[in-house]
Amino acid sequence: MGQGEASARGTTMEGDCLSCIKYLMFVFNFLIFLGGSFLLGVGVWVLVDPTGFREIVAANPLLFTGVYIILGMGGMLFLLGFLGCCGAIRENKCLLLFFFMLILLIFLAELAAAILAFIFREHLTREYFTKELKRHYQGYNNTDVFTSTWNAIMTTFDCCGVNSPEDFKDSLFKLINPNHMVPEACCQRASQAGELAYISQEQCLSGSMMFRNNKGCYSAVVDYFELYIYVAGALAIVVLTIELFAMVFAMCLFRGIQ
């Protein structure tokens, strides 16, 4: 009789623990679902906004790319949260297994990205960017991806070159444009009638320091993203920890379902 009571008590405790895991997993995935829905909503609103915000974003390649990154992240989180919620509340083994596999793939992809970033960290140095800029940058050319990307960076961050405007000496840009000391993207701009226009483009192109941006883009970008880099690193650690717990919870719930 005592053995039967102990067995029943153990079964009850196991059931309570399983129920706790199920509801914790549901709440956790519901928050992920809401976050994904919010990101999807923001991305779709920017793309279809009739007030002209879409044109502002489309005019800047960096912002335009960021919109699609937001849409991709929102869609992934939306699907992940939906699968986790349905799998937990319905105690569906197929959905829980699919959720576990999806989380595992994301975790492995993030791990691979971290390893690749560590391996290719020397490609993020000033010397590497300077060498690539001298070798490939052509000037105001929207058809070349490398050039248009650098133009977007220099106009967005009000900077010139990697270290300074001197980077364009002895470069491909100088060979193509022998009469210009710096490209148009380095010239200072001011707001006129609601639009940005160059202050004195001719003097800027001829090398006048008064009408060009003299700060290097490497320092400008690092200074701008310094806080975000630390925040992103902290968030990455939190996300990886949450993903590990999510996989453990999903597998515990999967094995506990009879």
UniProtKB/TrEMBL annotation:
<keyword id="KW-0472">Membrane</keyword>
<keyword id="KW-1133">Transmembrane helix</keyword>
<dbReference type="InterPro" id="IPR018499">
    <property type="entry name" value="Tetraspanin/Peripherin"/>
</dbReference>
<comment type="similarity">
    <text>Belongs to the tetraspanin (TM4SF) family.</text>
</comment>
<dbReference type="GO" id="GO:0045765">
    <property type="term" value="P:regulation of angiogenesis"/>
</dbReference>
<dbReference type="InterPro" id="IPR018503">
    <property type="entry name" value="Tetraspanin_CS"/>
</dbReference>
<dbReference type="InterPro" id="IPR008952">
    <property type="entry name" value="Tetraspanin_EC2_sf"/>
</dbReference>
<protein>
    <recommendedName>
        <fullName>Tetraspanin</fullName>
    </recommendedName>
</protein>
<keyword id="KW-0812">Transmembrane</keyword>
<feature type="transmembrane region" description="Helical">
    <location>
        <begin position="23"/>
        <end position="48"/>
    </location>
</feature>
<feature type="transmembrane region" description="Helical">
    <location>
        <begin position="96"/>
        <end position="120"/>
    </location>
</feature>
<dbReference type="InterPro" id="IPR000301">
    <property type="entry name" value="Tetraspanin_animals"/>
</dbReference>
<feature type="transmembrane region" description="Helical">
    <location>
        <begin position="68"/>
        <end position="89"/>
    </location>
</feature>
<dbReference type="GO" id="GO:0005886">
    <property type="term" value="C:plasma membrane"/>
</dbReference>
<keyword id="KW-0325">Glycoprotein</keyword>
<feature type="transmembrane region" description="Helical">
    <location>
        <begin position="228"/>
        <end position="254"/>
    </location>
</feature>
<dbReference type="Pfam" id="PF00335">
    <property type="entry name" value="Tetraspanin"/>
</dbReference>
